[in-house]
Amino acid sequence: MSVTATATPSLFASLRNAIAQRPALNRALPAILSLVVLLVVAGVLIPAFLLPDRLLLLGQQVAPLALVAIGQTLVVLIGGIDLSVGAVLTLSLVLGAGIARGADSMVLVAIVACLGVGAAIGLVNGLLITRLRLPALISTLATATMVKGASWVYTNGAPNGSMPPSLQYAANGKIGIVPVADIIIALVFAGVLVLLTRTLFGRRLYAVGANPRTAELTGIRVERITVIAYVLCGMLAAAAGLLLGGYIAVGTLDAGETYVLNSLAVVLIGGTSLSGGEGGVWGTIIGVVILAVLTALLIQLSVPIALRSVLLALIVIVGAILQGRRITT
Fold first, then answer.
1. Which pTM was predicted?
2. Rounded CA gap, 213 and 50, in Å?
3. How far is CA 223 from CA 125, 130, 140, in A?
4. Where are the alpha helices (DSSP H) in 159-280?
5. For the residues of 253-291, what is the DSSP string, one character each?
6. Coil, strand, or helix at residue 178?
7. pLDDT tens-digit series, residues 84-94
8. In angstroms, how far apart are the furthest CA atoms of the chain?
9. Does residue 163 contact residue 225 with C-beta atoms inside 8 Å?
10. Mind listing the domains of the chain with CATH numbers?
């Protein structure tokens, strides 16, 4: 038997064992395989699709979604859901543009204000769920409606102002061939990954998602973990609004319309359990890439936007069905 023949199975066995020892990656394995297949199909249909600069540009375009999805992952890991992320993103975008008005001298004020508002909305969500015992679905839907109304009141239905050059550079600029937005996502991803896998908070968050009652009996302050998860989700949604604002340069009141469904779709695709306690940001990032590649491929193939929306909804349904089967088995 040749060296190559023996080395290849050994390589795949090592990779499989390495993934098996990391639960979050293990749950993301179907997503990883799906991404590989999708990239192969894209490469066959459109050879230029796999050029490095095209793939890096793709990452730049979905950077706001990646931020929202990472925040959504934190909430889903505790068995919750946040339907207000799209409204928070929109409010952050119009608020940032309105405060900065294109001036770099106001960029820090705009960032602090938007992140503060995002954190405050997350705090409200967390308190509605933990103090008033409202279901996450109802409380975040109500919050989304209020936040959307706040955006209209703030802008009087006509957003004004614009994002300063520094935020536009963060969204559209490059360092070498690497978009700055890709670097931002990589740093946020690394930070949340460390938070989930290397800190006491991360272990407690997984424990709350797996079994809140048991977690409480072991001394974990379940309500505090829940509130923190929603606060972080709100802040990441607000950060996504600033990044998206930098990308399009001006404020708009319909910016966040698709982000609730899209963020849930990539969380599901990445293998995070809707019942909580299983999954992680590895799978979410892979889900973001899958959705980005699939959307770009459908656009290249001239698939109508209405049909693309239907396909996205089907992805969410299939993901939920697969998650349900995992839970029951």
1. 0.89
2. 48
3. 12, 6, 16
4. 165-172, 180-198, 200-210, 212-217, 222-248, 259-269
5. TTTTTTHHHHHHHHHHHTT--TTSSS--HHHHHHHHHHH
6. strand
7. 999 999 999 99
8. 75
9. no
10. 24-328 (1.10.3470)
